[in-house]
Amino acid sequence: MYETAYDFNESLLQVTVVYAGDEARLVLSGELDVASAYRVDEELRRAVDHGARMLVLDMSRTSFLDMSGVRALIDGARSARSSGAHMRLAGLADAPRRLVDALSAQLLLGVV
Fold first, then answer.
1. CB 5 within 8 A of CB 43
2. Closest CA to 40 of 72, 86, 4, 84
3. Which among 79, 72, 74 is positioned nearest to 34, based on CA atoms?
4. Which of 8, 68, 69, 98 has the maximal Cβ count within 10 Å?
5. For position 25, which CATH number holds?
């Protein structure tokens, strides 16, 4: 099993990426908003370029999500699909889940 991890720090968001085989798990800790959304987009693209076919975004530590963050997630899911990969969200906390539910984006984002 091939595994590597990367940490990226933003002022209010930390992204940890762990690769195992063809899966990339991105653990998002903090706030996914207008200031940090670009970073998630970059890391999703990097994971696909790295050969990941399953992208799992662990959002159990994501305390805040705004529309910019949702947009980055939707764009990431679409980009992954167009590259032959799949993306899903796991561990969505209550506050971010309310926004995803209000937008009826659960299926699009692969919420589990």
1. no
2. 72
3. 72
4. 69
5. 3.30.750.24
pLDDT profile of the chain (112 residues), mean per 10: 50 89 95 92 92 95 92 91 92 86 78 68
Domain that holds residue 62: 3-109
CA distances to 25, 37, 92, 106 from 22, in Å? 10, 24, 23, 24
Spatial distance between the Cα atoms of 85 and 66, rounded to a whole number of angstroms: 25
| Domains contained in the chain, number | 1
> Whole-prediction pTM value?
0.83
Contact (CB, 8 A) for 58 and 27: yes
